[in-house]
Task: inverse folding
């Protein structure tokens, strides 16, 4: 197994480019968590597909880096950025996104993590994770759906996880949020009236800062080494010896948004290397 758990920088060749007339510059894809990791990769892949992408994040400097990377890659579409806090600024973020075109796609990707057993889990951390990872996606869907109906079509993609199917210890807030995102996905599908679809994406561990930053905390909680966290905790039930890359996850969002996924509505794209469906 490679010792490298750093996400490779996305290159143009990494992007899944699809033939879809709806992937056009007049249509906006709003992407949360776009300053880094899966959010940045998704913003770049959707822009490479010709969409106008509006990336949002609380990290303004990281957002600027995403826009710079788009320019370096020479993507077919454009990447606009709106810095904001998902706990307070959702209506304003959506309003600013709508200034760049017709909102057609929403990718709820922003994520956080906190490692502690339930008995010791600080409720302020629990509330913060729920606000960013569950309440904000609900509010974003609420604000974006009217725009999508006006556009004539729309799709919401939610970044769930294997932890929205089964869980590991010491991550109660994350686990609850990911199960909730699958419920949001199905709720949107139930109310989409054929005009708006929704899907979720459930992966195992991905090479992102959110994942790599939690390795030391998990190691301390369990009294094991960082390498043991990767090999035994993160990939111990996978049928692979490498984590996914952000680009590979971003491509799932591009597919899910496309005409090729027209019958994907309320469903979950589970790319977990066998974590939840196999055992030793």
Result:
């Amino acid at each position: 197994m490679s010792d490298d758990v750093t996400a490779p920088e996305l290159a143009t060749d990494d992007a899944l480019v699809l033939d879809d007339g709806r992937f056009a510059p007049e249509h906006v894809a709003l992407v949360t968590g776009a300053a880094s990791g899966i959010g940045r990769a998704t913003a770049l892949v959707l822009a490479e597909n010709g969409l106008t992408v509006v990336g949002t994040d609380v990290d303004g400097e990281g957002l600027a880096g995403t826009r710079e990377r788009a320019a370096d890659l020479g993507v077919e579409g454009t990447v606009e950025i709106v810095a904001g806090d998902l706990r307070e600024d959702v209506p304003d973020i959506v309003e600013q996104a709508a200034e760049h075109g017709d909102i057609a796609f929403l990718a709820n990707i922003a994520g956080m993590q906190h490692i502690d057993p339930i008995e010791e889990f600080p409720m302020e951390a629990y509330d913060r994770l729920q606000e960013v990872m569950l309440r904000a996606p609900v509010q974003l869907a609420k604000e974006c759906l009217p725009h999508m109906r006006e556009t004539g079509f729309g799709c919401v993609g939610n970044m769930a996880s294997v932890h929205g199917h089964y869980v590991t210890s010491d991550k109660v807030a994350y686990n609850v949020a990911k199960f909730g995102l699958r419920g949001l996905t199905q709720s949107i599908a139930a109310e989409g009236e054929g005009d708006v679809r929704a899907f979720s994406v459930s992966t195992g561990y991905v090479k992102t800062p959110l994942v790599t930053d939690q390795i030391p905390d998990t190691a301390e909680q369990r009294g094991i080494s960082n390498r043991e966290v990767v090999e035994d905790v993160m990939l111990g039930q996978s049928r692979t010896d490498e984590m996914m890359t952000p680009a590979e996850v971003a491509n799932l969002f591009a597919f899910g948004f496309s005409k090729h996924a027209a019958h994907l509505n309320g469903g979950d794209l589970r790319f977990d290397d066998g974590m939840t469906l196999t055992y030793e």
User: Anything to note?
Assistant: The chain is about 40% helix and 15% strand. The mean pLDDT is 92. Residues 200 and 268 are 5 Å apart (CA to CA). The longest strand covers residues 196-203.
